[in-house]
């Protein structure tokens, strides 16, 4: 049986939507709209699912910060003992500010700057996931300047098709991520000769919103073959990082539960001593959050009716960017016949839509909850049209924490100067 809502801690009580013990209406009254609202219980439950599936095994779950980098969210995961997968020096600073442990941080990304390498070496991160030969050389040089040894894994590209959206598949030969599988052995030999590197592991990440464990299991088998080849050459790895990518339900997808997704992967590594790392992003936060927005106008048309809301593509880019589907629910139930609406924002772009063809019983001024917005929502937001970013709130039982204030307009141009 599928739950009514993809967000597990969302429920209707007395005809009104509540997240955990808090009415969404009360949040809108207190903090305004648009606001991102996250459930601490849902964040914790999704992390626990990984922890339980990996119980009894040497393993580390590194939350992929780019999915949602709010300090409040990071602090919840830090408190649960999570590691973190970062893609910039900025994300490392966030992790540390939120109380995360640098010793559990892995650093991914194809374009690490020297300054970012220094910052990460000084913080003492667990591993650099290196994505090219040039990066290996640069990291060796930077570590040498600091008199440190940089722990590394090579991110290999296992060339399996994750069968997901082309913009979010990363493990094919044709994209910019990782080193070609056939080049990995030679690159490891080269890394072994560089004096300021310490070979720690191997990494891969094949894509996002994966709904089937088969491509990842195929990638894991290829990676294991490489690990054994390296061992035969005297290069022993201590960890194997299998990346993130598990999908979530936005509409009618049926992603496997975390345990079912991990089971075939764990089977590949049965009896092995290496630590297994995972870098989940979306599956930890996606369904733990929603975007709360208010209807400004209802605008009937000859072909389409529009519900113009106060959230827009600058707040939630996924529909405009990937034609992504997000469930939209009226916060207050009304005894009205539903009408079919395009849910659009105020931005001057025809691509500024949040949802197409939704049947809703709503009036002007009503609140809508746009579900499954916890991942790649706020982190992909912008100030397009000089719109301040939304507030962010974490609900915890019947308590409410404002974890990011709504941006003020003067803060948006505080760094700018008119010519005299
Ligand atoms: C984006 C990314 C992740 C997280 O992916 P999800 O699909 O959100 O789980 C993990 N690792 C790397 C290297 C990434 O780029």
Textual characterization of the structure:
This protein has helices spanning 24-31, 40-53, 71-79, 89-97, 114-123, 133-146, 184-193, 214-232, 258-268, 282-285, 318-322, 409-412, and strands at 10-13, 16-19, 22-23, 35-39, 59-64, 83-86, 105-107, 127-130, 150-157, 179-180, 197-203, 239-241, 275-278, 289-299, 305-309, 328-330, 339-344, 353-360, 367-370, 391-396, 399-404. The protein is α/β, with parallel strands linked by helices and 420 residues long. The protein has 2 domains: 10-39 and 286-412, Lyase, Ornithine Decarboxylase, Chain A, domain 1, CATH 2.40.37; 108-280, Alpha-Beta Barrel (TIM Barrel). Helix 2 (40-53) runs parallel beside helix 9 and helix 5 (114-123) packs across helix 6. The protein is globular, with a radius of gyration of 23 Å. The mean pLDDT is 95. It binds pyridoxal-5'-phosphate.
